[in-house]
Amino acid sequence: MTSTDASDIPADRKVRRPRGGTSFAFLPVPSLLLVIFGLCLPLLLMARYSFAEFDPRDMAIQGLTLENYAKFFTDPFYRDVLLRTVGVAALTTLLCLILGVPAAHLISRTKSARLRTVLILASIIPLLMGNAVRVAGWMVLLSDRGLVNESLLFLGLIDEPIRIMYTLSAVLLSLVAVLLPFMIITLQSVFDRVSADYEDAAATMGAKPATAFFRIFVPLAMPGIYSGGLLVFILGMNAYASPVLLGGPTFHMMAPAVYEQAIEAFNWPFAASLAFVLMVATLILTVASSLFLQKRYGRM
Question: pTM to 2 decimals?
Answer without folding.
Answer: 0.82
